[in-house]
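Lab notebook, bench 4. The sequencing result for the construct came back, and we need a structural model before the next group meeting so we can plan mutations. Quick request posted to the team channel:

Model the 3D structure of this chain.
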Amino acid sequence: MGSMELRVLGVDGPPDDFADNIKTLLSVDQPAWEILAKWFLTTDSFDVDKAIASPVVAGSSLLPSQYRKCAGALEYLLEAWHASGLQLSDLQHDLLVWGLSTDEVDRLSALLHRLEPVKPLVYGEFMRFEHENAVLPTLEDVDVVCDMRPVFEDYVYHPIPEKRAVSHSKLLGFSYMVLIELLTEDIEGKTHKMAFQMTEDTLADFQAALRRAAEQLDILKAKTREFPA
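Done. Here's the predicted structure in token form:
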């Protein structure tokens, strides 16, 4: 990188994964860029995983990993551009200083100019993600298994006296259980697992609590409709 100061991309420059992402973006063909442009201009969620699963992307020349990197490069550029409050020419300057060729910057600038109307939305989605994932780990996955637990008359591991009126081999019945494993991830990408079990009664209480929480969310949303979602 040259000694000139970056105007849009910050003092420290782009994040570590930007080099690989922009290289991938510049390596794909124009039809792939059209698919990316159409997604940015029409999506309401900027959910890359949903886009990758769509028939349009699945039927294109883009591999899922390529789409993710291309979208990541464009998202970063649009976010940085919006946050800086500067012009496309300033971003062009930064990309040249960062090491892209004039031809690469010209080609990329044409795409960024098309996407300029949605850069506030891209930045807003970025900030929503930051706020929703800050402070506490976020739930990423839930695994649930139903279990039929045998109930015996005595423990397997127990200080056993010489004479005992109950037997560890006598089956009294069964208890129906639900086993749950939660996978969470914090904003730094560290994952955490927690597993627990519930009886039928506890599951019913948990379900009722979730229903009440959903009702409270509906009330909160109704009371705050004047605020942007």
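The mean pLDDT is 91.
Will bring this to the meeting.
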